[in-house]
Structures are given as structure tokens and as C-alpha cells.
Amino acid sequence: MAIRDNTKVIHIGNKVIGGGNPIMIQSMTNTRTEDVEGTVAQILKLEAAGCDIIRCTVPTIEAANAVKEIKKQIHIPLVADIHFDYKMAIAAMENGADKIRINPGNIGGKEKIAAVVSCAKERNIPIRVGVNSGSLERELVEKYGGVTAEGLVESALDKVHIIEDLGYDNLVISIKSSNVMLCVKAHEVLASQTNYPLHVGITEAGTLYGGNIKSSVGLGIILNEGIGDTIRVSLSGDPVEEIKTAKNILRILGLRKGGIEVVSCPTCGRTKIDLIGLANKVENLVQAYEHLNIKVAVMGCAVNGPGEAKEADLGIAGGVGEGLLIKHGEVVRKIPEDQFIQALKDELDHWEN
Description:
elongated, 353 residues, 13 helices, 8-stranded parallel beta sheet
């Protein structure tokens, strides 16, 4: 974890990243930012799910002006995502954005970049320099014989140097690719060449199913190497699902405490209860108990179920239309199948860590 401990400390609104601070979970709204009511509603759902920092696209002056109204109604830092028009970056900062995300290569020449940096410097607003493999400069593709980790890193650091030469170093870097192992390699190379905090993600990861797999593999490797200060799981779907996955990745890696871990058996011909339906209901149920740090087991039969449920803090071991409620390794009572969820809820409502 030495790499993460040594990164530069950056303040984003009321959050602090880098220098060994806790890894922050980010997401991005998929509403029209100009729609203040709809955007706020989505951000509040993301907050409730555990989102630490939110990013909104700012493609128009109306969206930039909406940032001010959105900020009044949310509780987490807001990052303005800017492409092509440097004026949108300035307008977003003037309206209270806590951070901006830019690719200096697509917002104009050095004078325009300088104007953005000047505004950020005046307000001490961090700039996230973002580079994606899909937009790697042609000369770097030719230099390295394709899209490579080294090319991505060179592109990112070139843009960082542009901003540093303007006298500003309140920076975060992100380099993303939909190619998982390319992304891993790029982060390894980048982390060895800079101490700026890194925002990590597998871009365009895909659907809930495929995207979760790619993100879990990629982020798991990168984070386990001590790289990364903020993360986003990019999914084609409800952004709340991004938060759920991100929390689980951090929890499994031992990088975040709190929240209930649900374990369940894969089912077999011995299963006599609706184990699959029950496990999904339990997973949804425990989302409301983020303050608890326990393991809940959902087991489907009498062969391994009671033993494995006893290894958890709380569990159900199914039988034929009924099951055993197990707590701290001891059988509490036998309960009908239709009362499983309510029994677990009652226990969680009165749980003491």
C-alpha cells in the first residue's frame, strides 16, 4: 500500500483524497444536467447508496448554471465533466463545481487551457486530467505501434506538464481503457512516475453483468497493488449499481469496513427452499444496514447449511419449507420459509456490533 500512502493530498469539496486517505467511490449522473430536479433526485439516491463524489456532464451554459442549483441540494462534492469548450469549465467553476475533469488536448490551445487553469487556481479547485485509450493521439499510437500503456502514460503526463508549466499542481490523473490488462499495466507504469492521486476505472466496461466482471478484475488487481485514490465502476445501467459493486470490491480487498457481506450456497438438488429468490431478497435487505460490519449466510439444505451458517454472524439454513435461524454459531429457532426475511430483518434491526 506504499504507493497510495505517498500520493499528494487533494481536497475535493468536503472530501480529502491521496496520502493514504480512504478511497472515495465516484459515479456519474446520466440525467441531463440542465434538469436540476431529475439530477438532484439521482444524486440523492447515489448518496444513499454510498457515493462519495459525483460527476455531471457540463456541455452547455445551461448545464453550467444548473451546477449552482444542484449544489444547494446535495451533500457530496460535484465534479464538472468538460469536453471541447473551455468556457464550460470556467462557467462550471464559477457556479461552484468542486472539481473539473478535462482533457487538455480537446479544449483548445494553450491560451484556453491557461484561462481554465487561472480560474481553477483563483478558487483552488482541483483539475482531473483524464485520458482514454480511445482518444490517444495519433503520434503516440504511431510511436508505440498501437495503443499501449506507455503511450497512455506519456499522453497523460504531457498534459499534466502543460498545467504544471502554468504554475498549478492541484491535480488528479485518470487513464482509462476498456481493455482490462492494458489498463492495469498503464496504472502500474503511471504510479511509478508520479505522486499525483489517481482516479481508477475500467471505462466502457459494459452491462451490469459484463461490466461488473471487467471492473472487479481490473480494479481488484490495481487496488491490490496499492494504486488508486478514487474509483468508479462504469456500467451501462442504473448508476446505483456502480456504487454497490464499488463498495463490494473495496470491502473484499479489505480497503473499506462496514456493510454486510452476504454469502449463499450455489444450490443443488437437495435444496428444498427458494434459495435463489431468498438470497436476492437478503442482498437487497442488507443495503439498509451499512453501519453493520457482519456476515450473513443464506444456505439451502441440511448437509452443509447449518455448519456454514454457523461460521457467519447470522444465517438461515433451509430445510423443507422451513429453516433454522442461526446467530453467533447457535441455532436460535426453527422458522417457516415465508418468515425468513422478516426474521432476518428483526435481528438486524436490533443488532449490536
